[in-house]
Amino acid sequence: MEQALLSEEEVEQKGEEKWRVYQSLGRSASVHVPTSLSGRGEEVSVDEIRSASIHSHPYYPPSLHGALVSSPEPDAPPYAYDQAIVHQGGFGQYPSGNMSREFGRKILDEVEIRQLLIDHVGHRCCWGSRPARRWKIAAVEDCNVYVGTLETFMEEREIVKEREPYLKGEIDEKDKGPELGVWELDLRSEFPLLFVSHKETKVKVPHSESIQKCTECEGRGEIACHTCNANQEPGFYKEKQMSRCPACHGRGLIAHQDGSDTTCTKCNGKGLLPCATCGSRGLIKCETCMGRGSILTRSIALVNWRTLSNRKVSATTAAASVPDEVFHKARGVQLYNTQSYQCTPAYFADSYFLNQFSSEVIADRSPVPPSARIICERHIISVVPVTRVTMVHRKQSFSFYIIGISNEIYIKDYPSKFCWGLCCCLEWLKM
């Protein structure tokens, strides 16, 4: 029995291939989608993202991207997105029609539709049940909605000066080593998982401490009293300034109804009182330096990790009355999911509409502040199954929507609402 042996070169190539797959960021669509239809493209490795970010700024260390191999899922409810086959639409055609089964939701019959509406109305204490139970279902229309998101995970750094009174002790000054730039700081221990909503940290910049003379008191440790020297020019003060005693009005004596006078006990008969703040010294302790005359200053790196989210909804006129937030929260089907240093528009070989929609989402990328750098981006396109149901009774009609795979109900104008301060739950007893 013959057995084929691999050469050392082939073994190394297979090992590198496995390592490349291990480092991949998962730039792919569904595992159920054929490669030719998924718009997958080439995988983007961690090393490619790191090298791209390094070239964006000379002081951006590659060690900051250690968390790229472990990133959380999008900010959505668990199982918010299922996987499905990418829509097979014609060139330039808006995907529509009866696609509920294709997008993971079974087609509902009229009995199931009515029961969903009855259950929804039953949780509203001031809604009557008669329209849900008795009105006729006139039309059932699929109007699926496409939701595109672009999440930009960024890191922002800035230097702020921190000051405190210098009491005593050794300081970490420039003589002990060079002061690092804000983008040269190694923050691997603080780096969060990718696409967290927000994280903030403060880090002292090494060798940035220095001792400076207090500018508030010019290094004297004392400043002019704000009470008795309020109108003095900066740097000048007067001593032994007295104020008139309010008890005896400066007489030093207290007059009584029988015509007698006694010595004022508040000013001891002097008629004047010293400044209550400084004792008429004219100076008080400087609160900035706590009377030390010196200030210890240091540089603090204020670091913020944030995820900027840009969302876009593409809906037909049939679903235009539903707020976009309803679709963002709905459970849909994920058609495309890519993650890279900077995402580019998706490519679907058979859908011009999805390609254009993805380009519009990418074009609306949130601006990044000048003090920030992009770490990674994630681009997702999903479809939310939506069914519009129209119910009629005589000359009246209303519409409601069944949204998402979990069959959530959205109604804007239900015809039987009683919210005038009296709850009409007894309406449910009427059949």
UniProtKB/TrEMBL annotation:
Signal peptide as annotated in the record: none
InterPro entries per UniProt: HSP_DnaJ_Cys-rich_dom, SSUH2_homolog
GO MF annotation, one: heat shock protein binding
Name of this chain's protein: Protein SSUH2 homolog isoform X1
Upper classification of the organism: Eukaryota, Viridiplantae, Streptophyta, Embryophyta, Tracheophyta
